[in-house]
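User: Thanks for the earlier help. One more: Helix-turn-helix domain-containing protein. Can you show the sequence and predicted structure together?

Assistant: Of course, both are below.
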Amino acid sequence: MSRKKVMAGLELLDEFIVRACRDPRIAISHIGLFAVLAAQWERQGRKNPLHVFARQVMTLCRISSSATYHKRIHELSDYGYLRFEVSFKKNVPSRIYLLPLSE
């Protein structure tokens, strides 16, 4: 992976952390979830939307409860960090759009 690509992924994560530090609603589980999504975004060519299955993301960010995962992903969506489009079909991934975070 090129240095430029790594920097793009790190910049996205850095922007999130800077904004999250000022947002008292953000918990460590939000940060872990967003970090995994940023890594997936990088792996998928830095293109929106991300196509992800909840179980895969949950395993990577160490969230064991689907209720917690859905609560956190919906909160990140409600707070303006991303846009989440759930798939109700087990064989179709959900879509996640990472939104611009710089202010």
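User: Great, one quick takeaway?

Assistant: The chain has a mean pLDDT of 90.
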